[in-house]
Amino acid sequence: xxxxxxxxxxxxxxxxxxxxxxxxxxxxxxxxxxxxxxxxxxxxxxxxxxxxxxxxxxxxxxxxxxxxxxxxxxxxxxxxxxxxxxxxxxxxxxxxxxxxxxxxxxxxxxxxxxxxxxxxxxxxxxxxxxxxxxxxxxxxxxxxxxxxxxxxxxxxxxxxxxxxxxxxxxxxxxxxxxxxxxxxxxxxxxxxxxxxxxxxxxxxxxxxxxxxxxxxxxxxxxxxxxxxxxxxxxxxxxxxxxxxxxxxxxxxxxxxxxxxxxxxxxxxxxxxxxxxxxxxxxxxxxxxxxxxxxxxxxxxxxxxxxxxxxxxxxxxxxxxxxxxxxxxxxxxxxxxxxxxxxxxxxxxxxxxxxxxxxxxxxxxxxxxxxxxxxxxxxxxxxxxxxxxxxxxxxxxxxxxxxxxxxxxxxxxxxxxxx
Length: 418
Known about the structure:
This protein is mainly alpha-helical. It is built from 18 helices and seven strands.
């Protein structure tokens, strides 16, 4: 074990080496001093995560009670991060980029159940993204039930309590989480981990994906945003290339984050990505403006790093984007600079640029099958939803109320009166 003071000193030096901002270091140092005094007051010299968690609980005024009640504040989670970072550095000698926003930890048995569940999903032919997303929700659910009798003691009351924790989420999010829970319970019932009747207590949420109208941008606003990006600095070069990849090629943000140098075929002027959502590889043309934007970033903006990914985070520690890094803030930042209003009622994240491309292609008469190939859709039914986002296309579908319609019956064709 390592002495608390020694561990804090070494971690401080590591954060300085990684380039953490002075204000961030000041915040950490303040909490480290509090933790050191707390350990010293109890005569504990060596760092222990268990002891540190007692400090976290006291410093937050009942951290674990708040966690169970779902009332944790962000400041509470930051205190937890202080202890978690010290433990990770003591064990691994390295600083991790991300720390869990919750203290719910799965037991070895629950971890095994989660791994088996994800294996079951893969065997059922689920997409890579579904396995990952359902696994995340399943982990949350297992952690929730662990203090309520586990899967073996699961009943309608526990299910109802879990559903109550979803209050305030968008209907689509609730639908997604409950679909994941149903899948977990089907697996658990088939594995003898819970009764089959408990599945019937999970409520249904009516939220059809095809019923929604995709959010799209006015093409002129997209041009304004691209022109507003300051390409005179490293972050601007990166952001310009990222936005171009999405609005010109229709890539998903997660696939842009995972884009590697090996995916770029410069002689062939094309790129390929294995889509995170479907697991399928798609090939797309490396358009001239997109290619030059990537070259500009790699040559004059990308930090020195051995990561195989093209795009990097520019804050310490330097490295590839994680799956938890969302690019929405990049688009919002440059939209504000361009004085393009970001609506409160309709989501205008990076994915909406993909919607915008699909709508424009459809308006230009591009066959829906070709659009599906560009976007990497597994079914043209997913592509057809973009018809709803174009008033021009919808106008073509409108019926003239003064035009008579006809019906064909046994006696021939006859006009239907209005």
